[in-house]
Design a protein that fits this description.
The structure holds 2 protein chains of 2 kinds. By secondary structure, chain A is an alpha/beta fold. In chain A, 33% of the residues lie in helices and 22% in strands. Chain A contains 12 helices and 12 strands. Chain A starts with 9 loop residues before the first strand and ends with a helix. By secondary structure, chain B is of the alpha/beta class. In chain B, the strands form 2 sheets. Chain B has an 8-stranded mixed sheet, with helices on both faces. A 4-stranded antiparallel sheet of chain B has the order 2-1-4-5. In chain B, helix 7 links the parallel strand 7 and strand 8. In chain B, helix 6 runs parallel beside helix 7.
Chain lengths: 340, 382
């Protein structure tokens, strides 16, 4: 486990991002700190509104301003604070050292330009190359993402390709600049499960081949189980638990993580008569409440939980959680389920 | 004709009793879909529209649903599962085949009878955001089917709306509020209340939890399970999440490119899937366990689902089929379309070469009522 100051590839400290809306200010990200090391895979898991996507859009400085605003924080990447860079410096990093792919591949591609011209643009954005070299590089990138018949695909338009194919084209564009970090924002959510598996295998292979770190944003605890080295769980704009992948699934120490793991039907377990559900719904981020944001839905709530906001603390071997409940109580709840 | 409330369940319940104690007898189905076809024409030209082809969204699908039963219908996008559901509730017109509800052919029925039949088949949609009219109050949304079917007076409708809302766990005092004031999970409850307002016997649930957050999915699945047992409902549960469908369904049908590939009891299909497509689907499901996921060796299916306007000749799955590839690409798969055949105990499979004696399990599926096996992943050697 690397400690603070060990020179992480990416280090985010106390990031806060807000959005101004007609109803008030939405506190989307509320003081998030984490790091990513060379070549590792970090999964950020959370439901809609948890702030997982806004956190990474803030890192990429892609939050639309206004209405969005990065209020405070520090994003250290390769020795610089990204939040203080000029826009042209940031643009030089995006797509070269830092790349991102999104959930909807079709809406991320421009419908009126051919795949060849969009992929070519991604290549020439960061290096000057003569035309034939751009063509060669395009073919090479397409073969890296398992797209056969490169010339046919380069001449095609996005609507002529399937969703899985478009997502692989997006991936080709993302790796065109040899990024050291690939941020994947739910890239498999819109895909069918058989296509999903193809993309997961592909990202895994490219990660090893190009020695990239991958930050995988998802709501699906199943998808990241085999993919991530570390997982951090977000709720209401905060990190509530983070640990290496084995410990998180075997020994979740935050009641929300426990709830998430319990409420999904699983093929690898006997079918229960009823699913354990988390009562209520996620909180309103316009009126932040005192104490822990999960408290109203939490079965292990203490009096303190509605007053003091818990901070992330280490419960052993880099396994962090933000919760006031007794560790033993969380583990007993987990164990009871194993018996039932 | 039946009264507006407390509707009798219809004659099928009486007939079902025949099957009790006689395990081999098949109860009279509440829904009998036979050779259902929904083709959408592809036309070219604005003034003179020439027909240039057809999207064969549903292309000869047959299944039944027994009273009180939940049939899961799974498939990838483009498989025709949603169109099948929409044809059953009358949102799209079938181009062929018959749909019988409690023995009555819906399409052939006289208009008044047709409306009476349709009232008893309702639908819950996937997206609770776009399926509720933002300008209508919750009370009017839930009362809409009552109004369409001209059931009850204004006062009895209000009572019925309150009862429906209570059934789905909502406070009837919300009737004057609007959809935007509710969360996704609450909206989906409102969608369910709307379906229940006219006392249906069959509810088509079209991916009712796919658009919801995972912490909310379980609430809605539990609600649907409760309503099924308290009201004696039957569901056609359409989904793409195989773990969700396993949780709620009694029998499961697998669709691919407009055709059924496999149909069997839940335990049979999950423990011993016989169609290579079902096996591939199950092999692609992720489970939240790093140890199992790391050992995953299933070779993903190659390529994408072909276009339903130009399905491959012969077996529609032949272009991606790993079994066909392992058999050395037999000619028969590309020339002869397999029919659904019974490979024992109602386990129907549309494959020329499916082998019921094959032992392997493609996915880490735990056996119900048994301890999860210590070595859950048992893949075939490549």
């Amino acid at each position: 486990m690397s400690g603070p100051g060990a020179g992480h590839l990416l280090e985010v400290r106390d990031l806060r991002t807000e959005f101004a809306t007609d109803d008030g200010v939405v506190h989307a990200v509320n003081g998030v700190s984490f790091h990513v090391d060379d070549g590792e895979t970090l999964a950020i898991v959370g439901e809609s509104g948890s702030g997982k996507s806004v956190t990474m859009l803030s890192v990429m400085r892609l939050v639309p301003q206004p209405p969005g605003r990065i209020v405070s924080g520090e994003v250290r990447f390769e020795g610089r604070d990204l939040l203080t860079l000029r826009e042209d410096e940031m643009r030089a990093l995006r797509g070269s050292r830092l790349a991102m792919i999104f959930q909807e591949p079709l809406s991320s591609l421009n419908p009126v330009f051919s795949i060849g011209s969009q992929l070519g643009e991604a290549i020439t954005a960061h290096q000057r190359l003569p035309r034939p070299a751009v063509r060669d590089r395009s073919r090479e990138l397409l073969s890296m993402v398992n797209i056969p018949g490169a010339d046919r695909v380069l001449a095609a338009y996005p609507h002529q390709l399937s969703g899985g194919m478009c997502q692989r084209v997006m991936l080709a564009m993302a790796i065109a600049g040899n990024p050291s970090i690939l941020i994947a924002d739910e890239p498999t959510t819109a895909l069918d499960i058989t296509t999903q598996l193809q993309l997961l295998e592909l990202v895994r292979r490219l990660q090893a081949q190009l020695r990239m770190a991958v930050i995988w944003i998802t709501h699906d605890l199943g998808v990241v189980a085999g993919l991530a080295d570390r997982v951090q769980v977000m709720y209401a704009g905060r990190i509530v638990e983070t640990s290496d992948v084995e410990a998180l699934y075997a020994d979740p120490v935050h009641p929300y993580t426990l709830g998430l793991l319990r409420c999904i039907p699983r093929l690898d377990e006997a079918r229960p008569e009823r699913l354990t559900s988390i009562p209520g719904s996620p909180p309103d981020l316009i009126r932040p409440m005192a104490g822990c944001a999960f408290a109203p839905r939490c079965g292990l709530r203490l009096e303190r939980c509605t007053v003091d906001e818990p901070v992330l603390e280490d419960v052993g071997e880099g396994h962090l959680r933000a919760c006031w409940a007794q560790l033993l109580d969380v583990r007993v709840t987990q164990a009871v389920r194993g018996v039932a | 004709m039946t009264g507006p409330m407390g509707v009798p369940r219809g004659p099928s319940n009486g007939r079902t009793a025949i099957a009790i104690g006689e395990t081999t007898a098949i109860p009279v189905p509440i829904l009998d879909v036979d050779a259902l076809e929904v083709h959408f024409r592809i036309t070219r030209g604005v003034v003179v529209q020439r027909r240039v082809g057809a999207v064969r969204a549903v292309d000869g699908v047959s299944f039944t649903i027994r009273p009180g039963e939940v049939l899961g219908l799974v498939g990838e996008s483009g498989s025709g599962k949603t169109t099948t559901g929409r044809a059953i509730v009358g949102l799209v017109k079938p181009t062929g085949g018959t749909i019988r509800f409690e023995g009555h052919d819906i399409e052939a029925a006289a208009p008044a009878e047709q409306r009476a039949l349709r009232r008893r088949i309702q639908i819950v949609f996937q997206d609770p955001y776009s399926s509720l009219n933002p300008r209508m109050t919750i009370g009017n949304i839930v009362a809409d089917p009552l109004r369409v079917h001209a059931i009850g007076s204004e006062k009895t409708r209000r009572e019925r709306v309150a009862e429906s809302l209570r059934l789905v766990g909502l406070d009837p005092s919300i009737v004057n509020r609007y959809p935007h004031q509710f969360s996704g999970g609450q909206r989906q409850r409102i969608g369910v209340a709307r379906a229940l307002s006219v006392s249906p016997a069959l509810v088509v649930c079209d991916e009712p939890v796919s658009a919801l957050d995972v912490s909310i999915q379980a609430q809605i699945l539990n609600l649907l399970a409760d309503l099924r047992s308290t009201l004696g409902l039957s569901y056609l549960f359409i989904g793409h999440d195989l773990a969700v469908v396993r949780h709620i369904a009694d029998r499961v049908a697998v669709m691919y490119l407009g055709r059924l590939m496999e149909l069997a009891d839940r335990d049979a299909i999950y423990r011993r899937p016989l169609h290579p497509y079902t096996r591939a689907l199950l092999g692609s499901v992720h489970v939240p366990d790093p140890a199992i996921e790391r050992r995953r060796q299933v070779v993903p299916l190659v390529g994408d689902i072909p276009s339903p306007s130009a399905p491959p000749p012969g077996c529609r799955f032949s272009s991606r089929c790993p079994l066909r590839a392992s058999l050395g690409d037999p000619e028969r798969c590309a020339t002869e379309e397999p029919t659904l055949r019974d490979l024992g105990r109602g386990h129907l499979v549309a494959c020329h070469f499916a082998d019921p004696s094959e032992p392997s399990i493609p996915a880490p599926v735990a056996l119900d009522g048994a301890e999860a096996t210590s070595t859950p992943v048992q893949h075939e050697a490549p």
